Structure formats: structure tokens, C-alpha cells
Amino acid sequence: MHVNKLVLASGSPRRRELLSGLGLPFDVIVSDVDETIEEQMPPEEMVRTLAYRKASAVSNTLQDGIVIGSDTIVVLDGQVLGKPVDEQDARSMLSRLQGRAHTVYSGVAVIEASTGRHLVGHRSTLVHMRSLTDAEIVAYVQTGEPMDKAGSYAIQGIGSTIVDRIDGDYFTVVGLPMELLASMLTSFGIHVLKATEDSKR
Ligand SMILES: Cc1cn([C@H]2C[C@H](O)[C@@H](COP(=O)(O)OP(=O)(O)OP(=O)(O)O)O2)c(=O)[nH]c1=O
């Protein structure tokens, strides 16, 4: 199959939007990988493993292209909060997260399909969420926004109004650490910031 040089192995509209912002052409190929993972694994290992699993499931089907996979989890008191299974689950996650800080981990894997050469990295960001009343939690869950998000909130959406501050990279929380990704892409000959011959003079 012929693909653009860059391939995003993700069904996440947020990741697609962030990557679009770079102005590079890319294709999206969504893999249906099993995201089951050993619970005792350290969180950074978890997101790195899943990012690589997603990217390799797609790169294995291609002859060429540079494939990007990513994974995001929310960790509170050493416990991983993934996507909520239902509204009740979303409400209970938010009542645990409110009024305190948690860590968001995002892993990124970049694989060159023709050779299998790959890089895997991750970033983490501390997110301080403001206190929420039960009524606010119910109202937020009713918006529907939490349902497909790790930790049951979206910092880039209505969730922006419940985050007090963050320590670290914003894009790690949304789901794709952009500075990390760009530096990884450089190793595969894709330079987001490349001076043209004209501008070098
Ligand atoms: C914490 C947080 C998570 N999220 C999202 C990012 C991810 O889409 C999702 C975490 O689930 P993931 O399993 O990382 O990704 P995904 O299933 O949405 O997409 P794919 O596996 O195909 O790449 O949570 C936000 O959009 N905003 C936030 O503030």
C-alpha cells in the first residue's frame, strides 16, 4: 500500500488535530490492538509499551512510511485511571481527582516501516484539578466530554475550566507530546523546522 511518508496510528481526533498543526501531510491508519497490560508495570513503561504496540501493529502492514503511535494514562495514588466504562465510572474518577494533583503520562513511538528502526519516548505532566461539587461533577459528565478520555476529563475542552494549573507540557495531557515527537521525527529525517536555502542566506 502506498502511504504518505508520515502515518498516524491513532483513532484519536485530538492526536490528529495536534499533528495537523505541524502542516506536514500524513495518513491515519487505526489499528485495533489489544490494550491489555500488566497492572504492576510502572506507568512510563505502560505508555511506552502501548505506544509501540499501536505503532508496530500499523507499521507491520506497510512497506514504507514513518509510523507514529501514542498512549495516554492518568495516574492517581499509584493507580491507573483509563477511559471510563460508563457515566458512573466517570463520576467516581472525577470525585477522586478533584481538589488534588495527579500525573498524566503520554508515550510516543516512531517506527520506520521499511527497516523496523524505532524510537520510543514519554513525557509526564502534573495536573492540579480544582475542587468540584457533586453537582458540578454530574453536570460535567452530562456534557458527554469525559467518556472517551483517560481520567474522564479533557483539558482542551470544557475540562479547561476545572484545571487549576499544570507543571509540565500541556500536549502531554491532551495526548501527544509535540516537542518530544518533533525531536524524534528529526532522527528519521523529518524536520518540522527546516530552514530553506533562501532563508539561510
Ligand atoms: C487527560 C486527557 C486525555 N485525553 C484523551 C487522549 C486520548 O485520546 C485518550 C486516552 O486514550 P488512548 O488509549 O491513549 O488513545 P485513544 O484510544 O483515544 O486513541 P488511539 O489508541 O487510537 O491512539 O484520552 C484528552 O483528550 N484530554 C485530556 O485532558
Automatic annotation (TrEMBL):
It is found in: Cytoplasm. Pfam families: Maf. Its EC number is 3.6.1.9. GO terms for molecular function: hydrolase activity. SUPFAM superfamilies: ITPase-like (SSF52972). The record marks R14, T72, Q156 as: Important for substrate specificity. It is an enzyme of class 3 (hydrolase). It catalyses: UTP + H2O = UMP + diphosphate + H(+); dTTP + H2O = dTMP + diphosphate + H(+). InterPro entries: ITPase-like_fam (IPR029001), Maf-like (IPR003697). Keywords: Cytoplasm, Hydrolase, Nucleotide metabolism. Its cofactor is a divalent metal cation. It comes from the Bacteria. Belongs to the Maf family. YhdE subfamily. Nucleoside triphosphate pyrophosphatase that hydrolyzes dTTP and UTP. May have a dual role in cell division arrest and in preventing the incorporation of modified nucleotides into cellular nucleic acids. This is dTTP/UTP pyrophosphatase.
